[in-house]
Amino acid sequence: MSRIGRKVLVLPKGVSLSQKPGSVGVKGPKGELLRAMPTGVSLKLEGDKLTVQRADDSHENRSKHGLMRAHLANMVKGVTEGWTRELEINGVGYRAEVTGDAVTMALGYSHPVVFKLPKGVAAKVEKNKLTLTGSDRDLVGQTAAKVRELRPPEPYKGKGIKYVEEVIKRKVGKAGATSSG
Asked: What is the extent of the structural domain holding 35?
């Protein structure tokens, strides 16, 4: 049996769960999230304890069992605490500013890059750090990946957009002409 799927998920105060055929919804103080419910997996709610159960021990249902439990845990954390992803912008003249529902960035191109934020994701800029927040973990992560894709970090000078915890393997440049003869 799945170790993750077996874990009981405790719903905090202020979080409610709603089930419809084929989908499950979680509502809390930071919003509401909806996800499709795979076949072969069901939910059992007793008070504030939620358990994910599977129909049989087939390989497909075993994999869906742990996956659905993990998705539900991420949804519960999203509607209570929210998810955050931090990006760091490195480079001379590289900067970002938030204007409404878009982030305008100077990334060394001949023009400013305007990135429109999807609904449910908010951005904040402090010095060279861009912080993306939202209740949907998948959406926040995907948005951060798309922003990073605008100017990925390069290995020679480290210029570009990188995750704060990301370590860029640096390369040594050309040796250059050192002798004057």
From this structure: 3-80
